[in-house]
């Protein structure tokens, strides 16, 4: 099992396509760790975080 790094100080980013409100989008922390890409719901920043490998995140971004 991999250890999830501490992301409490992560700098979260939103898509430029999220519009003015930006309330209905995903956020990710691109520089949180070289081993994971943390992703969360922008409406609940204190909620759960999904952790993807960089390769899986890149594949997702290419697909959408």
From TrEMBL:
InterPro entries: DUF397
Domain of life: Bacteria
Domain DUF397, first and last residues per copy: 10-64
Protein name listed in UniProt: DUF397 domain-containing protein
Source organism of the structure: Streptosporangium nondiastaticum
């Amino acid at each position: 099992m991999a250890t999830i790094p501490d992301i409490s100080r992560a700098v979260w980013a939103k898509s430029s396509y999220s519009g003015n409100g930006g309330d209905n989008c995903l956020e990710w922390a691109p520089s949180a760790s070289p081993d994971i890409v943390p992703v969360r719901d922008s409406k609940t920043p204190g909620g759960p975080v999904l952790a993807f490998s960089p390769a899986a995140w890149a594949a997702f971004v290419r697909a959408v």
